[in-house]
Amino acid sequence: MITVRFDRVGGKARRVSVSGHAEYSGCGQDPVCAGVSSAVQMVVNGLVEVLKLKCGVRKGENEVEVLLEDSRSENTRAGEMFLEAFRLHMELLAEKYEGTINVIVTEG
Q: Is-contact 5 16, C-beta < 8 A?
């Protein structure tokens, strides 16, 4: 199962981490894994390349973590909304492909 964890601070999205495998179908053939991987890449590119926000990005074996570090930029609110849109996308995928994605939202 893929675990997608969203951490909020003061009600605002600050960090997202994604780990695991959907195990919906065979390795290299899994549309859920491909969809999640593509969406994560879009989030990173949107935050860093389009919005020009300072983000910490950590990649590991079957995991990625994105931390929105820049909380004072004029684009910070857009970055927070971008992360919320990603959360919604992950929740919709989790509904469509039950048992493949676990979305967790925490407030810290």
A: yes
